[in-house]
Amino acid sequence: xxxxxxxxxxxxxxxxxxxxxxxxxxxxxxxxxxxxxxxxxxxxxxxxxxxxxxxxxxxxxxxxxxxxxxxxxxxxxxxxxxxxxxxxxxxxxxxxxxxxxxxxxxxxxxxxxxxxxxxxxxxxxxxxxxxxxxxxxxxxxxxxxxx
Length: 147
Fold this sequence. Notes:
- The chain is an all-alpha fold and about 150 residues long.
- Helices cover about 90% and strands about 0% of the residues.
């Protein structure tokens, strides 16, 4: 019961994040202008943030979609299946992609280096979870064959 409640809560938070990213697609120019009024970003800072953000949106939305489908499978009690391993693999690549996209942007706006490190770490963590899930799927399939 607690697992399903947690999965439902996470699913709704995930969908809320996707909506926030959708809103930011349109609000980012205004937010950057507002932020520059508070703290000058230098000659290329705003362009680096904008460039990085808009290039990161597709992998972020795809990762959120994969998380949505993964949580949907968990709610259907389809946890240790190959499809979930594939989704985790895709999420890992999305995290790694966002990290790599932010590298050139961080050359122009140095605080983005934190995004590079955070997303690389997240890719590593998702990779570990993916490996654990893959081992569990293999074990389940092996057990299904013996029974």
